[in-house]
Amino acid sequence: METLSRAPATEIEVSSRFVRYATLGGTWGAWLFDALDATIFSFVILSISNTFGATLGQVVSIAAWFLLATGIGGLLLGNLADRIGRKRALLVSVLTYATGTLLCGFAHSVTELSVYRFAVGVGVGGLWSAAVALVGEVWPATSRAKAMALMQTGWSAGSLLAAIFAWTLLDASDPASWRHLFIVAAIPAYGVALLILVFVKESPVWLENREFLRNNKNKAGLLEIFKGDLRKTTLLALAISILGMYGYWIIMTFTPTYLQSVLHVRIDQAPVFLVWTGLGATLGYVLYGELAERVGRRQAFAAFFFGIALAIPVFAYGARMIPLQDGRLAWTTGNIAIIGVLSALLGFFTGYFSGFGAWYAELFPTSVRSTAAGFCFNFGRVSAIAGIKLVPMLIPVLGFTLTYCMASMTYLCAAALVFTLRETQGTQLTSGN
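Structure tokens predicted for Major facilitator transporter (433 residues):
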């Protein structure tokens, strides 16, 4: 039984080329700094531990709070985007994560830093919800997956920029240099907010649907995604996100620390991993979009999930095979190239992230599109808390390498689960769907 009356399937006038690319450019920039602010933390875990005299487990708890906040932000700001518009919610998200990141640079304790990273997480989670709904509704079905893939390259660009900032600003002789990283990372995001305010237009699909909702007693509430026919779709999409996020955040959170622990690289050398991972991911995002348009959303997801399940142990054991000199990695051109190739391979198969936006936008109706997409994507990220909290406990028992490789199992499960959801390739988004 339907629980939410739907607007008639009204054809919306196709957005102009300028509007489409302005939307893509604005969301790409917002997603870039979203990634920058989300990923810089992995470079400073040990530095923060030393500054505050905290254990690794205590500092990792900050990452857990961040991931919990992404789920809350995805749900609340996602619902806000369904109610007040995609553009306004986008602006709220950018300003939230920018301000939270800026404050991180002035934190005086682990507790205070946790609060600020929680705020960053709310903004990070909310941004994706609004962005995928906006891009999905502005771009036509024939090129929607490609547009989402291009938007997703903003994440790899942000990760790459985070690595460059870390490489430039972190100083092994200055234990407080991590503060500069947060401050510098926050400032450009305010400029992106201004560009969105000026150049990005509201979704015409949302505007058309808004008129319907004003005259319909059934408003799009937070719980609508768990009612009627939407319940099954929501839970299956959430399960796929959980499996995809669990492995990813273990990799992104612990790989710099893994390289420091196994190869004994310095804190200012570890960012090389993210540079190459970002380059590989950029290629993966683009090629995923092409593949999804050719073979469909489900087959593309399955291929990339299977690929990263293989890439994780290749990276972990490949890194261990590099010979050490005087107990640490010799920083030679050859060794950097080996780490680079392994990292790029790992990054390439994270290209599946460019598929969540198009698929989730096509699975849910306009009235709850941002709410549903934000909930499924970001509460998938919340599930990664379990992995992040579990890793420090398993390392003494299984060793860092085997613990790291266990992430592959979640990807194999995800590859099978994608076929439980319907294929949506070619779906037209109107005010009624």
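The longest helix spans residues 230-262.
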